[in-house]
Design a protein that fits this description.
It is a single chain. This protein has about 290 residues and is mainly β. The protein has 2 helices and 23 strands. A hairpin with a 2-residue loop joins strand 1 and strand 2. The longest helix has 12 residues. The radius of gyration is 41 Å and the shape is elongated. The termini are far apart.
Length: about 290
């Protein structure tokens, strides 16, 4: 070891090395921010669980309990006559909430319940058949009727289509011993084949529930099978008799009633005769609705 001015060089080198060496720096690690989430108030779920539905006259009544009286929003979606509808009860704070929605037949509802302004919601599926008004026979004031053919000649017989929409007790002009009736034209050779049809104009659109038909008092001049159709404009007709052909007894002169269910209110009713006598007749037409 070399001694320089009384200092050993080895000791000097160690001291220099120690003085030049840097201490390691540990990088700072930032702790992630912990967001404190605010849980959704479960009040909407409590309200949703309490909802009940009740049938009322031509309507569905919904009731619910909101004991906390915190604002909730209820959205009712449903379909009537093929049209999608929606009823909104917004920002409701009533302890005992209620809403009545007009309906006229079995209706299914999708009910969405949420806290007002919330992105979370609960959906309930509910359905009800409303209390319905009794069926009543409609007055035939102003009604008219047309047919594919008719016997309506003053020199022969006056058995035109209009006879089916007069009063059921009106007598035939050409045969006073019988109620008035319609008869297809049998003067052609060959005579008109089936199908025959009659169209009744009710003069206003209405959702009828039944059709009543009376046979001619001669059971040999009738038909045995037919279909019932309805229309809003007298041009496009759809089946309103459940999609099936109906059976008619031409030997029964009292009213024979057939249920119908048009999707919407209709103005025109078409009776298409499919099978029966070569010269069919019909004594009377009636229609019923809930009014």
């Amino acid at each position: 070891m070399i001694k320089i001015k009384g200092v050993y060089t080895g000791i000097l080198l160690i001291a220099l090395f120690t003085a030049c060496k840097k201490n390691p720096v540990v990088p700072a690690v930032e702790a992630p921010e912990v967001s404190v989430g605010v849980p959704e108030d479960p009040n909407y779920q409590t309200v949703a669980a309490s909802i009940e539905i009740f049938p009322v006259l031509e309507g569905a009544k919904f009731v619910w309990v909101n004991a906390s009286k915190k604002a909730v929003t209820l959205k009712f979606k449903y379909t009537i006559d093929g049209i999608n509808k929606e009823t909104l009860v917004d920002n409701n704070v009533a302890a005992n909430g209620t809403v009545t929605i007009p309906i006229f037949e079995l209706t299914n509802f999708s009910v969405a319940i949420s806290n007002t302004g919330s992105k979370l919601l609960t959906t309930r599926l509910m359905g009800v058949l409303p209390v319905q008004k009794p069926e009543a026979k409609l007055a035939k004031t102003g009604w008219t009727a047309t047919a594919s053919s008719e016997i309506n000649n003053p020199d022969e017989e006056l058995n035109g289509a209009m006879n089916i929409v007069d009063a059921v007790d009106i007598k035939s002009i050409t045969n006073p011993s019988a109620p008035s009736f319609w008869q297809s034209d049998y003067n052609l050779d060959p005579i008109y084949p089936y199908p025959h049809w009659l169209i009744v104009d009710l003069k206003q659109a209405i959702k009828i529930t039944k059709v009543g038909l009376n046979a001619h008092n001669d059971g040999n001049q009738g038909f045995t099978q037919f279909k019932i159709e309805g229309s809003v404009d007298g041009i496009g007709f759809t089946n309103i008799g459940g999609g099936t052909d109906k059976t008619f007894n031409p030997k029964i002169t009292t009213e024979q009633v057939f249920a119908v269910s048009p999707a919407t209110a209709i103005r025109y009713v078409k009776i298409t005769l499919l099978l029966g006598s070569p010269y069919p007749c019909l004594g009377n037409f009636e229609a019923y609705a809930r009014q």
